[in-house]
């Protein structure tokens, strides 16, 4: 099937989730079009059915995977040229790390999570299982934990030892960002290295991006430069509650991606909101009532000042047993 380069990653993931992405043939890029091989036309998600076409694609040369070398399928995550493990057994972690290096996966560093996310800056400890020096890999970055992650045509320089970033949220970010309009006033309350702010600015929005982590803001400014949107982003280091007075009533769209504690910042979000404002509120709740507590908190913060209308209730992913990471897309309309 043929799609634009901008759609390529989203469609690839959708085809993979539907089980119809053909791994035996290569994906081909021809100018602004990406051709994705499929195994079954009938299994293509309905929203992409019109993109199915006919074209010969070269066969994919088989690659050695870590599973081929280990005899079992290990769990790992890729972020740029870093591979991330989450193994309690250090011997097993080292075994997987060695298999990753010996496989055909392009890798510079292999890390194992050594702590949970902690503190206001949402960082964690890492154990470096394989460094660039260990395998003689070129290291153009300042540390083994720094890399460039590419997502939907954008690139983000970041250091996982200094900032929070989750590649698992790529599809969710794309879902909300594709509706951003040129000229919109967008406020990202917990911006990180810019995975919401930079695509929003690229779509023509005027963006204010705030984060408590000074290093994240440093990376955000660099990433804005890399992606050619520096002129449309105001990056602010600080607590958004202390910044909000300067932007009161300004925002037409607000991102609140701090799911464990976004509720503590709802009064600030309401202060930032203009006459009409779309709020993307991320939350983690029990599967029995994943949206109710968040909606109640938003209504309480809005008080008599705004009408509150839910536009979308969206499950982002399973977070833990019986807990869901969800997003409420809520429109605030001044009364």
UniProtKB/TrEMBL annotation:
Top-rank lineage group of the source organism: Archaea
PROSITE patterns: SAM_MT_TRM5_TYW2 (PS51684)
UniProt KW Ion transport keyword: no
Enzyme nomenclature, EC number: 2.1.1.228
Pfam family, one: Trm5_N
Signal peptide: none
Transmembrane segments: none
Record-level GO BP terms: tRNA N1-guanine methylation
Residue segments, region Disordered: 52-71
Keywords from the named record: Cytoplasm, Methyltransferase, S-adenosyl-L-methionine, Transferase, tRNA processing
Single GO MF annotation: tRNA (guanine(37)-N1)-methyltransferase activity
Domain SAM-dependent methyltransferase TRM5/TYW2-type per the UniProt entry, residue ranges: 76-334
GO cellular component, one term: cytoplasm
PANTHER family: TRNA (GUANINE(37)-N1)-METHYLTRANSFERASE, TRNA METHYLTRANSFERASE
UniProt-recorded name of the protein: tRNA (Guanine37-N1)-methyltransferase
């Amino acid at each position: 099937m043929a799609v634009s380069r901008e759609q390529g990653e989203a469609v690839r993931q959708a085809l993979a989730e539907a089980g119809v992405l053909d791994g035996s043939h290569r994906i081909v890029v021809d100018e602004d079009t990406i051709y994705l091989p499929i195994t079954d036309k009938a299994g293509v998600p309905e929203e992409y059915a019109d993109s199915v076409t006919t074209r010969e694609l070269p066969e994919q040369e088989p690659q050695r995977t870590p599973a081929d070398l280990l005899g079992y399928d290990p769990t790992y995550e890729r972020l740029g040229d870093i591979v991330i493990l989450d193994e309690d057994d250090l011997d097993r972690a080292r075994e997987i790390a060695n298999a990753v290096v010996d496989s055909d996966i392009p890798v510079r560093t292999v890390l194992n999570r050594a702590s949970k996310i902690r503190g206001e800056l949402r960082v964690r400890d890492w154990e470096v299982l394989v460094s660039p020096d260990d395998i003689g890999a070129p290291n153009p970055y300042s540390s083994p934990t720094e890399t460039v992650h590419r997502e939907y045509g954008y690139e983000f320089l970041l250091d996982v030892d200094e900032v929070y970033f989750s590649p698992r949220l790529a599809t969710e970010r794309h879902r909300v960002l594709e509706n951003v309009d040129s000229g919109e006033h967008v406020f990202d309350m917990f911006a990180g290295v810019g995975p919401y702010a930079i695509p929003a600015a690229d779509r023509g929005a005027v963006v204010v991006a705030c984060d408590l982590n000074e290093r994240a803001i440093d990376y955000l400014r660099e990433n804005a430069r890399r992606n050619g949107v520096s002129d449309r982003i105001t990056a602010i280091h600080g607590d958004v509650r202390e910044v909000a007075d300067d932007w009161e009533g300004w925002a037409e769209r607000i991102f609140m991606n701090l799911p464990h504690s976004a509720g503590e910042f709802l009064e600030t979000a309401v202060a930032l909101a203009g006459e009409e404002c779309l709020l993307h509120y991320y939350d983690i709740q029990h599967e029995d009532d994943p949206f109710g507590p968040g909606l109640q908190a938003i209504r309480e913060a809005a008080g008599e000042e705004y009408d509150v209308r839910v536009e979308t209730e969206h499950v982002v992913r399973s977070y833990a047993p019986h807990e869901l990471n969800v997003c409420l897309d809520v429109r605030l309309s001044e009364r």
